[in-house]
């Protein structure tokens, strides 16, 4: 059958375009056909809609009641970059900046000093967190969307490079927190408690990522209801445990920079959790009614 592809903005010189495609074709096949006609528009760059519905990959055109002669709106999403690459770039910032501030303290702060026990523990906790995130990005995560607009990488990276990278490192490893300075020492019980809660939250976060990974077979965008550790209470326990991780860092360091990153990060994760929670409940009619979005028994 013949389908007309029309530019949503009306500004593309390559559109409108008429595509010949089988009646039982998939959305992926339609995107590939458009790409064959206009190589600039590779599949990940395309957003197709009909009757205000976005055509989802993994579905047939007939699922949207698309017939001979119908017109489909096309939007160019612009140059894309893979989500995996974006995550690697984001987490690399703190991995780079924290060692610079920690090991080159005399060059950065203009004086030499000995790190306090708090600073050393905080350094290894933060480095362990971001190295874990890089490993998960490479070997654990399976993404529902393979790419995102290229220029978003700069906005996304600012959160990590600036807030949890430069800003956090500068204030935590400075001479005002050095060994022997007033206010730099922490009781032994607090150090061990923070390390223990941090380790538990990191392991818990990793385990929830494994559960999510196992829900989606390789190379697919299958969505299922997650069950198990943490998921019986909230839809996004991975965000909950991530928040606990940064709460322990904030308690340990007593740094305004750490509390700022916690506030920014937890707020964003809560908004994502609300969105995902609503999506689960809309998509799955049998979704557990007693679950909250991110905070057990509350929201």
From TrEMBL:
Its main location: endoplasmic reticulum. PROSITE patterns: S5A_REDUCTASE (PS50244), UBIQUITIN_2 (PS50053). InterPro entries: 3-oxo-5_a-steroid_4-DH_C (IPR001104), SRD5A/TECR (IPR039357), Ubiquitin-like_dom (IPR000626), Ubiquitin-like_domsf (IPR029071). GO terms for cellular component: endoplasmic reticulum membrane. It is found in: Endoplasmic reticulum membrane. GO terms for molecular function: oxidoreductase activity, acting on the CH-CH group of donors. It comes from the Eukaryota. Pfam families: Steroid_dh, ubiquitin. Residues 1-74 form the Ubiquitin-like domain. The keyword Lipid metabolism applies. The chain crosses the membrane at residues 189-208, 229-249, 255-274. It is a multi-pass membrane protein. One of its GO terms (biological process) is very long-chain fatty acid biosynthetic process. Keywords: Lipid biosynthesis, Lipid metabolism, Membrane, NADP, Oxidoreductase, Transmembrane, Transmembrane helix. Belongs to the steroid 5-alpha reductase family. PANTHER family: 3-OXO-5-ALPHA-STEROID 4-DEHYDROGENASE, VERY-LONG-CHAIN ENOYL-COA REDUCTASE. This is 3-oxo-5-alpha-steroid 4-dehydrogenase-domain-containing protein. The lineage of its organism: Eukaryota, Fungi, Fungi incertae sedis, Mucoromycota, Glomeromycotina.
